[in-house]
Amino acid sequence: MHNQKITMLPLDDFFKSPFTVDNIIFGFDQDDLKVLLIKRKEDPFLNKWALPGYFVKENENLDDAAVRVLEELTGLKDVYLEQVSTFGNIDRHPSGRVITVAYYSLVAIQDYNVIPSNIASKAEWVKIKDISELSFDHLDILQSCFQRLKRKVRVEPIGFELLPAKFTLTDLQHLYEAILEVKLDKRNFRKKILSMDLLVDLEEVQEGVAHRPARLYKFYESKYEEFLAKGLVFDLSEGKSKQSKISRSVDTDI
Amino acid sequence: MHNQKITMLPLDDFFKSPFTVDNIIFGFDQDDLKVLLIKRKEDPFLNKWALPGYFVKENENLDDAAVRVLEELTGLKDVYLEQVSTFGNIDRHPSGRVITVAYYSLVAIQDYNVIPSNIASKAEWVKIKDISELSFDHLDILQSCFQRLKRKVRVEPIGFELLPAKFTLTDLQHLYEAILEVKLDKRNFRKKILSMDLLVDLEEVQEGVAHRPARLYKFYESKYEEFLAKGLVFDLSEGKSKQSKISRSVDTDI
DNA sequence: TCAAAAGTGTTCTTATTACACCCATGG
DNA sequence: CCATGGGTGTAATAAGAACACTTTTGA
Q1: How far does B11 lie from chain A, in Å, by closest CA?
Q2: A15, A141, B84, B130 - which has most CB atoms within 10 Å?
Q3: Strands B16-29 and B99-107, how do they pair?
């Protein structure tokens, strides 16, 4: 205790790096899973597509930076972001070493109005299957977050965030199919999802469709949150492996 | 393209932080899950217990830094480390802002010889349930990694890393019970684990125990790796919720 | 011979899978 | 009246849960 000042090394003795946050915002639109991208108007990667991300400030927690940067570049506000992982290879940024922390989120595309600004000349929802190239190591980051989403979908209910307030069972099935990249059986899907007591039948139907109109549902909010908190395993994929095992997740974070 | 030099901002214009890696090394010993801790011989937190972690160097990838720092502080070599998450709140380090990336690993305690050095005056395996206080925000980091381990155990086989080469079914059951913090039914546990074709009966028994000696098993390596790669759900806990659903994981990383 | 842990099966219940036809609407 | 997607049930199989007694060893 008496020599505290003597043994403490100043932080300036250590290597310091700039660091950024990058956001992967997933949205679902019709039958496609999409990601929000910006077109850069700054070098490096001028005029190239990238994830909306930028530098963290000195007096800003990482999580706060992710929220701020997302809003500055795309206009998206009040989005819940979850940290996924950190990319810190020495050569990942052409201008020098930059460490980046990746965050992800799920949003309903129709609820947000995208306004590009700051270093973004454009901000657009792009189908995930059409993305083959991105700035920096953003394609790796996207892959990593997509893996996380696929995993998460099996352990938590997902959809509230990605679907409009009223949706059909087919919409929900298509969402699961898009994320899991599988085909599901309509009857089994419905049986399972309805047995969970997670949906409320709105006693309304679609209008103006050229076929029998589908019933509309919404999520039963308190039940949805209970499932989120308890983290019940919630696998809707089928025909996989005969070695499947019953599972339950206790944890909240994935 | 013509004005690339003009629009590119130098990285020095942005805030730079020192950053560290912290390692959570889980081990299993008898019936207890343990974590490798060091006693610090440097301020801040002089003489306090902490996770083995230190600053990253300029020309070092994050993953490489985690491996190096672990060896320097505890003598553990050739340990596979997996990134868990990054802690970057502005006030997490008393000397100023330091961002830390947490890594975790599972090892068989008896396979490693712990040698404290560098800023570690001691390095010891400590029972997880006996840890109530750690330096910095290391208790939060530990909690976060323990959650991850609990999740992982349900989605991948675990044990190869934590158990000695030869073990009994009861050892394996106790490992699962320690991680999941539940009691399992002996018959159901054995039925399930043996049906997976993951273990090899060594046709040997324990020696020198004051009770009927148990058979010894080892992991069937190629099968084990196949399970790791395919990520089959592998839940051995019971008596949880009537809402359990059959699940399968496709992803490798957790 | 006693204490301690090993080892072993069955029954009941619940969840998953596979699968095909009629219905309601707009054009 | 036709094309389009909506909506529905059952039977067979597989997996999980609950549960108690006998065996083997060393002390």
Answers
A1: 7
A2: A141
A3: parallel
Q: Which residue is nearest to nucleotide C20 (CA to C1')?
A: A187
Residues of A in contact with B179 (CB under 8 A): none
Indicate the SS3 state at residue A139: helix
Quick one: which H or E segment has residue A17?
strand A16-29
Domain residue extents for chain B: 17-153, 158-241
pLDDT per residue over B112-133, tens digit each?
999 999 999 999 999 999 999 9
B161-191 tens-digit pLDDT: 999 999 999 999 999 999 988 999 999 999 9
Class (C level, CATH) for A158-241: mainly alpha
* Contact yes or no for A15 and B237 at CB 8 A: no
Output the CATH code of domain A17-153: 3.90.79.10
Q: Do A42 and B98 touch (CB under 8 A)?
A: no
**DSSP conformation letters of A22-89:** EEEEEEEETTEEEEEEEEE-SSSSTT-EE-SEEEPPTT--HHHHHHHHHHHHH---S---EEEEEE--
Query: Which nucleotide is nearest, taking the CA of residue A207 and each C1'?
Result: C25
Q: Which amino acid would we find at residue A10?
A: P
Please list every residue in chain A whose beta carbon sits closer than 8 Å to the beta carbon of residue B86. 62, 83, 85-86, 101
pLDDT in tens, A29-68: 878 999 999 999 988 999 999 999 999 999 999 999 999 9
With beta carbons under 8 A apart, name residues in chain B contacting A10.
95
pTM attached to this predicted model: 0.88
How far does Cα A244 stand from its chain's mean position?
A: 26
Measuring CA to CA, which residue among B178, B169, B149, B172 is closest to residue B159?
B172
Measured in angstroms, what separates residue A185's CA from nucleotide D8's C1'? Answer: 13
B7 Cα to chain A: minimum distance (Å) = 6
Answer whether residue B65 shows pLDDT above 60: yes
Residue nearest to nucleotide D3 (CA to C1'): A211
CB of B192 within 7 Å of some strand D atom: yes
